[in-house]
Amino acid sequence: MFELFSYGDTGWGDEILRGLAITVQLAIVTLPVGLLLGFLAAFASMSRLGPLRFLGFGYTTIMRGLPEILTLFVVYNGVGLLLNMALRWWNPERGATDFSPFAAGVIALGMVFGAFAGEVLRGAFQSLDKGQTEAGRAIGMTQGQIFRRIQLPQLWRFALPGLGNLWINMLKDTALVSVIALDDLMRMTKVAVGVTKQPFTFYLLACLIYWVMCVLSELVLYWMERRANRGIRRAV
Amino acid sequence: MKLKNKLAAVLATTAIAASMATSAWAQSLRLGTEGAYPPFNYIEADGKIAGFDVEIGLELCKRMEVECEVVAQDWDGIIPGLLANKYDFIIASMFITEERQKQVDFTDPYYLAAMTHVVPVGSDITEFSNEALSGKVIGAQSGTTQADFIEATYPDADIRLYPTQDEVNLDMASGRIDMQVGDMLPMLDWTTKSDDGACCELAGDPITDPAFVGDGVGIAVRQEDDELREKLNAALMEIRADGTYQAINDKYFDIDVYTMQ
Amino acid sequence: MNPIEIIAQYWPRLLDGTLMTIKLTFLGALIAALVSPGFALIRTHAAPLAQAPLRLYISFMRGTPILAQLFLIFYGSGQFRPILQDWGLWTFFRDPFNCALLAFALNSTAYQTEILRGGIMGVPQGEIEAAKAIGMTRFKTLRRVVFPHAYRIAWPALGNEVILLMKASALASVVTVFDIMGRTRQIFSRTFDFSTYLWAALIYLCITAIFVLIWRQAERRLSRHIEAHHKPRVAAQPAKEPQA
């Protein structure tokens, strides 16, 4: 049975590894996009301006309430449509453009990540010790310095468990892009199944690979949490 | 910071993609196909897209003197993909139907086709009517003329729609569905030439009702690309006339699929 | 885009899909809710070695995508059809609804077990000691003290989990189940009208909103004996004692 997984023309090992590479790439590119959107959403939700708060609330509610696969389809079909409509209006001569499934995946997964991360970050912001911020202001730190030296390290400590969870969920959600024709791990597994007619074997393999990635992520996150919490005295 | 660079890369790629102009007539074209429909289009073990459709398509490109790149796209999104300019024409065993002609234009047919029922060998299904099949489980690929056919003809049956033909075949072989409706030639290919397809056989009369089968199988282009459509038609005439079509045809089939003889 | 046309022509199918989604989600969550208390007890009270298979199962369910689990069960069972038939299980696995339900139930059980575990561990030790002191049996303690309190603690997280299950149920469409997503894709494959997806989004948001309202109401009812004590005494100051 293991010849099925080997490299080369007859084995599926190299196709599956290529799919794995795409999966990892997708997750790594989505992370900063999602974090950025998360910070924006958190700031918007905590803003003094009513409309901005409404925007933040609307974004997080919608993105958290819709199935990820629906978001993916909407982005994949919709953004292409929007892009073409916009371009056609701007310059009717030009033809339309391409919108890669990878970009659709990044945007859709990033928006979902950003909505959940926004809530995690908002919770973290609200757990900050206001006294420390005031102390910083009292000794004349600028807003930027306060954010960088006082707030961000604490935010990081509070938000890490939540964000870590979101990372693992996102890693699993990348499997959805197989439905919009991106050659990630899930899709390459599907192709292999189509040819070899051994669904259980290959889907089990895919499950195991995802499982390993998640467990590895959990270990790394555990180490990061230990490091972020060094020197913090616990109540118990 | 690596984060910044990656983010910049994504934003830049989107910006670049948005600023690229691609017209349907250029020195290179992109050919869209599904890649999951043997023997017409499929992905080989080494990852290349091959099949009757692909070979005809590349031959037409040669006659039009353009470089063609083959792009695979899931069936569900194949027409939206054409409209979104992911490729310039679709050659993927797509039946010419009125419904589709609302969205895209077609060239002349490059082969004729019919649909057929497929049942397990030794099945007790002999009659193909709505009453006889009521409650039976019938499968087809979603978004195809087969799906339209079973939804219209056997509304009382338990209809299952799958994203790809492969998955229909998989469930047919495992016995999850009692019957499927598919294109004649791929089904013939599957039941006679593959291991898992040996489970099943064609049954009943071929379905040739033009309401479902349309006018044959054509190449889809965007409605504004008349020039491309005419060039494709001319190239098609050429390869029919000089025998290249026949050569490709004979590699895959025992009959001439252009005329179905 | 013709949103009005789409809904006018296809609303029966979408309604059908909505009912299917609700059925899948509700049954999946219910099955998980029946099984998870037992598992949660194992997680909190059993020896580490005895917990190992359970922990492995939970780790697997949480560490693999639901899509992969679905495919594994749906197409995997097809591969083992002869064996399943021998055991009389094929009629179960033949139906895609059953396969999807099984996948969702297995998945939700794992998550609900962990959530309940958190709830059980959050019950103050003092309450359990008090129950012991007045002579309650182990079982009675669980039934009257531990679980009610654990469920109250876990209530919001459990509600979250049901919502996540509903979102996951959209994947059933990939294995031929005609839920909201399945019907939406069916309609889109004929009309190519983008507004179909927008209708689906609206339906999902409505279901989520209604569910959240009901869940919060239930939470208020469950905690009504606590709120009565903690609600600040409002406005009406009792008449001041006349100065002595």
Can you describe what's shown?
The complex is a heterotrimer of chains A (236), B (261) and C (244). By secondary structure, chain A is mostly helical. Chain A has a domain at 24-183: MetI-like fold (Orthogonal Bundle), CATH 1.10.3720.10. Chain A contains eight helices and no strands. The longest helix of chain A has 33 residues, at 13-45. Helix content of chain B is 38%, strand content 24%. Chain B has helices at 2-19, 52-64, 78-83, 98-101, 145-153, 165-174, 184-193, 210-213, 226-241, 244-252; strands spanning 28-33, 36-37, 41-43, 49-50, 67-72, 89-95, 105-106, 115-120, 137-141, 158-162, 179-183, 200-207, 217-221. A five-stranded mixed beta sheet of chain B has the order 5-1-6-13-7. Chain B has ten helices and 13 strands. In chain B, helix 2 packs across helix 9 and helix 2 (52-64) runs antiparallel to helix 10. Chain C has helices at residues 3-45, 48-63, 66-79, 81-86, 90-94, 96-121, 125-133, 138-169, 180-191, 195-222, 224-230. The longest helix of chain C has 43 residues, at 3-45. Chains in contact: A-B, A-C, B-C. The interface between A and C is large, with 38 and 38 residues.
Low-pLDDT windows of residues of chain C: none
Mean pLDDT of chain A: 86
The appropriate CATH architecture of chain C is Orthogonal Bundle
Which CATH architecture of the domain at 24-183 in chain A? Orthogonal Bundle
Give me the Rg of chain A, rounded: 22 Å
Query: What would the CATH topology of chain C be?
Result: MetI-like fold
Structural class label of chain C: mainly alpha
CATH topology description of the domain at 24-183 in chain A: MetI-like fold
- Overall pLDDT of chain C, averaged? 89
Quick one: how many beta strands of chain A? 0
What is the string of SSEs of chain A from the N terminus onward?
HHHHHHHH
End-to-end Cα distance of chain C, whole Å, is 79 Å
How helical, in percent, are the residues of chain C? over 70%
Give the total of domains of chain C. 1
Shape of chain A: flat
Helix count, DSSP H or I runs of 4 or more residues of chain C: 11
Q: Element order, helices and strands of chain C? A: HHHHHHHHHHH
Q: Identify low-pLDDT runs of chain A.
A: none
Beta-strand share of residues of chain A = under 5%
Structural class of chain A: mainly alpha
The CATH superfamily of chain C turns out to be MetI-like
